[in-house]
Write a structure and sequence with these properties.
alpha+beta, Deoxyribonuclease I, Chain A, six-stranded mixed beta sheet, 12 strands
């Protein structure tokens, strides 16, 4: 199974690039963040992306997430929903037998740092609840936290910068401690130049002077089946690079319970 997660930084500005990416990669799951558009503002060419079950969850000029599943891989219409802590259209989930997949966009924290901390705390509880139902979880998206010091280029490290603060990193670790694995870091443990976001000035992207903010977090049993995880630094005009992760089969088989449904698509 192939999963793409990408903070598009405005779906209307990146519509043709998303089509190109999907056509090139043929992913089974597409997780998008920072749509900056209401569902009805999503370009017509994307709203019902050919070959995919599409769910767009946006509220206006910021935030917003999308989650799309390939029909060939998932022939039955999925039921998309939102955890109770969803606010500002920041998370959408889907239950696939024993597997839950979620696209998440954690608040940056620049305008309301307390809201970011609350959201991260809720993500920890969410991971625990999913695993408590004996389901596996793949949590994809922009967490807006650089997990470790090496996840920020030395030229970008600042002791009290939001996204690098100790309390944010501690909460990230608590989320992982709920049974999740940072797939990309596990597959590439010695790469200190592994970044997914670059400030859009001074050629930082071209020089790979960035932060790692975008993740694929998976339950340990699934993470053990991860084969590859790659950042497309040179693709597209978003300030984030798309992350492409592949897992060996089977990923969704088995399971005792299905995800409790919330607001459907």
């Amino acid at each position: 199974m192939k999963i793409i997660t990408w903070n598009v930084n405005g779906i209307r500005a990146r519509q043709h690039q998303l089509l190109e990416l999907v056509e090139q990669q043929q992913p089974d799951v597409v997780c998008l963040q920072e749509l900056k558009a209401k569902a009805e503002q999503v370009p017509e060419m994307l709203y019902d992306l050919r070959g995919y079950w599409c769910y767009w969850h946006g509220a206006g000029p910021y935030s917003g997430v999308g989650l799309h599943l390939r029909k060939e891989r998932f022939p039955e219409r999925p039921q998309f929903s939102h955890p109770a802590f969803d606010h500002e259209t920041r998370i959408v989930q889907v239950g696939l037998d024993a597997l839950v997949v979620a696209s998440v966009y954690v608040p940056n924290g620049g305008k309301d740092y307390a809201a970011k901390i609350r959201f991260l705390q809720e993500l920890e509880r969410y991971a625990a609840e999913v695993h408590g139902r004996e389901q596996s979880l793949i949590l994809c998206g922009d967490v807006n936290v650089a997990r470790e010091e090496r996840d920020v280029h030395p030229k970008e490290r600042k002791p009290n910068a939001i996204g690098q603060r100790p309390e944010e990193r501690d909460l990230f670790i608590k989320i992982l401690d709920r049974g999740l694995v940072d797939v990309q870091r596990t597959l590439d443990p010695n790469n200190d130049s592994l970044f997914t976001w670059w400030a859009p000035w001074r050629g930082l992207r071209e020089r790979n002077i960035g932060w790692r903010l975008d993740y694929v977090l998976a339950s340990a049993s699934l993470a053990a089946r991860a084969l590859t995880s790659t950042v497309l630094r040179e693709f597209g005009s978003s300030d984030h690079g798309a992350v492409i992760t592949t897992f060996a089969e089977p990923v969704t088989a088995g399971g005792r319970e299905r995800l409790e449904r919330g607001a459907g698509a």
